[in-house]
Write a structure and sequence with these properties.
Elements: H1 2-18, H2 50-57, H3 75-81, H4 112-120, E1 122-126, E2 135-141, E3 148-152, E4 159-163, H5 167-172, H6 180-188, E5 193-197, H7 198-204, H8 220-233, H9 240-250, H10 299-304, E6 310-311, E7 328-329
Length: about 325
Amino acid sequence: MARRGDLLRRLAGAALAVGLTTTLGACVPADSTTGGAPRRAHSRASTGHPHEAHRHQGARHHSTPPAVPSGEGTALAALEELPVKGRAPMTGYDRDQFGPAWLDADRNGCDTRNDMLARDLTHLVFEPGTHDCVVVNGDLADPYTASAIHFVYGDGALVDIDHVVALGNAWATGAFRWPIRKRAAIANDPLNLLPVDASANRQKGDADAATWLPSNKAYRCAYVARQITVKTKYDLWVTPPEKSAMERVLGSCPDQRVLTDSGAPVLVPVNVTAPSAPSTPSSPAAGGGTGGSVYYENCDAARAAGAAPLHRGDPGYGPHLDGDGDGVACE
């Protein structure tokens, strides 16, 4: 693990030395995020969105880059250092194995979901009395679809917070053997999180780069580079098809850099308890659900029944399944 951490720091340092204005052969500017900033500052570090590049630098159109060998600081170089193995079984996987959704992992007084909305949305409106925490309105330049989305709190069909390395993929490439605090760390690390179009996120599910890429082709290099950076930081492996897909994407942008680390620790600095073993399903307590006579004890049960994701009002939806309270459970 120390070797992987040293590699990430070395790669990230090299990327910073080149400078964020490097464009030779890149599909889009390399992503960067900052973590742990004071809540009221609402720092807007570059997230690598093509919309952001357009706002600040104007649209750029690159010709096909020349063939350049991968070098230190590039996503291709980092990819070559990742172990390659097959997928581990999904036995025991559940979203709850990654801790509650969402934690206040950086202990800034606000949960991770709202931190990410405040980081990436513009024209923010906060719920009064929440100390600029709960985002009720804002505008998102979605990196996955290149569309503009007006976010409204409570409408679960608009914006999801995507785990760029999906938690199911993380489980199958190493996270199954982690302690709960490390799983909670990757689930709440700003490096691994992006507010995106909800429909695109749900199409992705737990897919890796071999089976899903953003429809916005201009963002694919940055997307894959972010996945590689996360997998390097957390000592995850890639499968052979996943690595091949990443290489194909980065073949068009061999100088795409790895991201600067968010600074979030690989063990959350808060108490997180591993979930208990599943018990026999029972009826919900009075007032515990809103989905009528259908009841799912947890998201595993909902997925096994083919019902996930569940929207508020759907049969089986209940607040015990909707940890972030956005109206969509088991997404």
